[in-house]
Design brief:
By secondary structure, the chain is α/β, with parallel strands linked by helices. It is about 30% helix and about 25% strand. It is built from seven helices and eleven strands. The strands form three sheets. A seven-stranded mixed beta sheet has the order 5-4-1-6-10-7-11, with helices on both faces. A two-stranded antiparallel sheet has the order 2-3. Strands 8-9 form a two-stranded antiparallel sheet. Strand 4 (about 45-50), helix 2 and strand 5 form a beta-alpha-beta unit. The chain is globular, with a radius of gyration of 17 Å. Bound molecules: cytidine-5'-triphosphate and magnesium ion. Cytidine-5'-triphosphate binds near residues 11, 77, 100, 102 and 202.
């Protein structure tokens, strides 16, 4: 059994409003992608594939060095994952872990739990419980309150048995995450609750939070 890691890093980070692609935005002086790769470095992945913005492929290659193979990403996260997956030479019992470059505070032990679960059950995802009351809003007005029971926020890592991932990707269906394709196919997806440090750096204030966390870690 081999383990593979796919890191979608091809997004521009439009909500972050920075000139460089989000994965290259420095955190404590080093690109976000470096922190993310380092966080999972102790897991013995056979190959790590980073999906990069096509125009910056060379720059990403230089940054990744021996740590990862770089492929050109696509227009959407799903397309980037697809491109990375198609570059892999997997066999039946292998497991593919997918983790966003924009989530540098994941821990290797969280990823390991998700990978274990995927090996056993076929598919597993990181999730956190929803702490806020979720409102349905239209034109700045509330039109309803969702029942929070059983609601979780799904993130990454997500891990899948390679043969099953190949099968659901081949359906050509669309979903914002790969687990969604398993759901559409009627396949089970396990949930592993991880810490809230697994947040995705999305908005400018998330960078401030990230910097503060790294400062605290370095002390
Ligand atoms: N991603 C990707 N290819 C894309 C879009 C996104 O590989 N075409 C990656 C991002 O680089 C990121 C992860 O998917 O690591 C999660 O996406 P998100 O946080 O939405 O990043 P961006 O799409 O870059 O940000 P925004 O939506 O604000 O533009
Ligand atoms: Mg996006």
């Amino acid at each position: 059994m081999s383990l593979f890691l796919i890191v979608p890093a091809a997004g521009s980070g439009s909500r972050l409003r920075r000139p460089e692609p989000k994965a290259l935005v420095p955190l404590s002086g080093r690109p976000m992608l470096s922190w993310t790769l380092e966080a999972l470095a102790e897991i013995p992945f056979e190959t790590t594939v980073v999906a990069a913005p096509p125009e910056q492929k060379t720059e990403f290659e230089r940054l990744c060095g021996e740590r990862a193979v770089v492929v050109a990403g696509g227009e959407t996260r799903a397309a980037s994952v697809r491109a990375a997956f198609h570059s892999l030479r997997w066999s039946k019992d292998d497991v593919v872990c997918i983790h966003d470059a924009a989530r540098p505070f994941v821990t290797a032990s969280e990823a390991a739990r998700i990978i274990d679960e995927a090996q056993r059950r076929g598919a597993a995802i990181a999730a956190t419980s929803i702490v806020d009351t979720i409102k349905k809003v239209q034109e700045n007005g509330v039109i309803g309150t969702l029942d929070r029971t059983g609601l979780f926020a799904a993130g990454t890592p997500q891990a899948f048995r390679a043969d099953l991932l190949a099968e659901v990707l081949a359906t050509g269906r669309e979903s914002t995450d790969e687990a969604g394709l398993f759901e559409l196919a009627g396949l089970p997806v396990s949930v592993v609750v991880i810490s809230r440090f697994g947040f995705k750096i999305t908005h400018p204030e998330d960078l401030e939070i990230a910097e503060a966390l790294l400062k605290k870690k370095s002390e």
